[in-house]
Amino acid sequence: MSQQDWRKSVVYQIYPKSFNDTTGNGQGDINGITDKLDYLAYLGVDYLWLTPVYQSPMNDNGYDISDYYQVNKLFGSLDDLRTLISEAHRRDLKIMMDIVINHTSTEHQWFKDAYNNPESPYRDFYIFKKSKGKGPPTNWQSKFGGNAWQQETETDDYYLHLFDVSQADLNWDNPQVRKELHRIVKYWIDFGVDGFRFDVINLISKGAFKDSERTGKEFYTDGPHVHEYIHELNRATFGDTDLMTVGEMSSTTLDHCLKYTQPERQELHSVFNFHPLKVDYAGGDKWTNASMDFLQLKEILMDWQVGIYEGGGWNAIFWCNHDQPRIVSRFGNDATEALRVQSGKMLAIVLHMLQGTPYIYQGEEIGMTNPNFTSIDQYQDVEAINAYKSLLERGVSEAEALIILNQKSRDNSRTPMLWNDERHAGFTEGEPWMDVNHNYRHINFQQAMEDPNSILQTYRKLITLRHQYDIVTYGDIEPLYMTHPELFIYRRNYEGKSWLVIANFSEHSVPLPESLNIEGAVVIANSELNQRTIEGYGAMVIAQEEKWEKESE
User: Fold this and answer.
1) All domains of the chain, ordered by start, with CATH?
2) From edge to edge, which strands make up the β-sheet containing 128-130?
3) Which residues pair with 244 in a beta bridge?
């Protein structure tokens, strides 16, 4: 695949457990994805990113892998996956696998052999350290809450788990670990997949094991050998193939992301960073009842857009994924149906006109909202349940804790896909593993297909524009009016052409700046300008060159 091909691509993320159930057990499966390939081809995307489908005890919904070479029976079989890949390829769709190689499940055979056996050859596959006095080796905090070290049952050694206690960090400083991980990646390349999303890949190199004045992340984020190890992974596995790769980067920096993605460094094609999705944290704390800082959102997005572009790297751009709340509830407005549709289209236009590879998370394209659960019993995610307990311990009321979870929980995006207005939204004939959104009767795929003015049709149009016009992929980005409190305005420039993007992030109509030139042809819009005023949650793209011709209907 040429650079041009993958850079013009759009990726659709599938959370298999919640996508489509063909067995009636209440959980989605691989055959359920195969059954919906025609829909995904209709949408127009190029890659399908599957969150992990490997063997796993599912303590962290598959991100705790116990066997990298087997498919979880909950999702199907290796033969089912082969069929999915074959049927996807028949429709010019590519399959991107999500792979977790910072840590394994404690149910993995490597860890089971290493645990309580200091003489095991697999002991050095993980990070075991002696107790410091009567406590853990360091005060590092797990990203899921609590200390990041767990003591063995028979010794005073502790193993490191930056995430759940059942997710033991691998020791990448051991060359044998790296060889085994290379072997796993090559297995899936030979299996026929078309790309990889590497989970928290910038955490693989740990530095000094010292106490921290914060949470410890300064000792393992973008660690001392991370670029060396990713380059080695590239050279040993996918580097000379046409696979597309993207790395999830936790608490990273622009400088490191340039290094991860500059082609001459031979590391990764693109990176996710999450800084724009922390603008509704209060004082850096996710678990707070806080609203979006709009100016900060613009500043972070544009700093990364300009910085990555000028440095020769590449962004992965996204509003949603399996770890983030629904964007239309978060940065848009789902108070009424009209506001949901209008703000959903606006957010789509803003994102898909940015520079980078866009990712769409299942249901985003039909404007799915947060489910607004009313009881902690409806939540499934270990992080959310731990956060709820922590909030109560801090004196937060149950009602306020639920409001916070309704805003920030990862479960907001993990509810079943809404296919139609029938029982359980057509997701399953059984009882779904998680409650279906209550508004499924008027927000579902079937309704969106039948409505020519739906959010879905806006996404289809945006994907088509990216495929057809190089300015969307290769144009530079020029931030405009960055201090405007309600409007997000930027320009894309390429080979003497210019596209102007205007979006109103407020509920009310807003006049455009007097100095803004809006002459040109409208490429896509969810509203019209009335005397240089853009309506609430309005957005438009204006081509400002003489020879641009609107795509024929």
Assistant:
1) 3-104+174-457 (3.20.20.80), 109-169 (3.90.400.10), 475-543 (2.60.40.1180)
2) 128-130, 157-160, 149-151
3) 195
Q: Are 244 and 273 a contacting pair, CB within 8 Å?
A: no
Please pick, among 199, 334, 435, 535, the residue that the annotation labels catalytic. 199
Tokens of 1: 């695949």
Radius of gyration of the chain (CA): 23
For the chain, the 3-state helix, strand and coil shares in percent, each to the nearest 5, are 35, 20, 45
How far apart are alpha carbons 467 and 9 in whole angstroms? Answer: 7
Would you call 411 a catalytic residue per the annotation? Answer: no
Q: Which two tokens stand for residue 152?
A: 């063995």
Task: For the chain, 553 residues long, give each residue's pLDDT as a single digit of tens.
Answer: 344 479 999 999 999 999 999 999 999 999 999 999 999 999 999 999 999 999 999 999 999 999 999 999 999 999 999 999 999 999 999 999 999 999 999 999 999 999 999 999 999 999 999 998 889 999 999 998 899 999 999 888 999 999 999 999 999 999 999 999 999 999 999 999 999 999 999 999 999 999 999 999 999 999 999 999 999 999 999 999 999 999 999 999 999 999 999 999 999 999 999 999 999 999 889 999 999 999 999 999 999 999 999 999 999 999 999 999 999 999 999 999 999 999 999 999 999 999 999 999 999 999 999 999 999 999 999 899 999 999 999 999 999 999 999 999 999 999 999 999 999 999 999 999 999 999 999 999 999 999 999 999 999 999 999 999 999 999 999 999 999 999 999 999 999 999 999 999 999 999 999 999 999 999 999 999 999 999 999 999 999 975 555 433 2
From the candidates 248, 323, 365, 535, give the one annotated as an active-site residue: 248
Q: Is 199 a catalytic residue?
A: yes
